[in-house]
Design brief:
alpha+beta, 3-stranded antiparallel sheet, 13% strand, elongated
Length: 171
Amino acid sequence: SRQPVTYGVIMLMAAAGAFAMGQRLPLALVAMLTVAFATAVSGLGAARSQQAATSRKLASVTSVAEAAQRALLRPLPERVGPLELRALYLAAAAGARVGGDLYEVADTRHGIRLIVGDVKGKGLDAVEVAADVLGMFREVAHEVYTLAEMARRLDAGLARRPGAGEEFVTA
């Protein structure tokens, strides 16, 4: 904790002040100050080590989250037929790297199919639903002729998911 660090700094400042005024310090006090200073320095070292470990873990989790997001939201082609496409993913939550947003385009024999959506909720549960919806879209877009039938099939697929009563996707 910060308490040994604070006491060590206070004691060191007191010793420096006494030394600056020309006072000699008893050997026992010098030994006590040395121990306090060493404790303060080791406390700082431990805190920095813990902070570095936390930073490494956060970087690792962030890296995995970004890889998962790239796998889920594949890069869109720049052009599909007459459409020019661009996509930029910005999570609403500060620091979030993954979420329930989804988009995909498919050039099919039935025409160009595009989905843009958002899963109700957040975190890994929303990512799981988004992945399922995108998987269903990638298949159904090539199989059905009408957009109404495509929407019906996506809805039916979502309804078959475990715990589906609470899931909701705006698309």
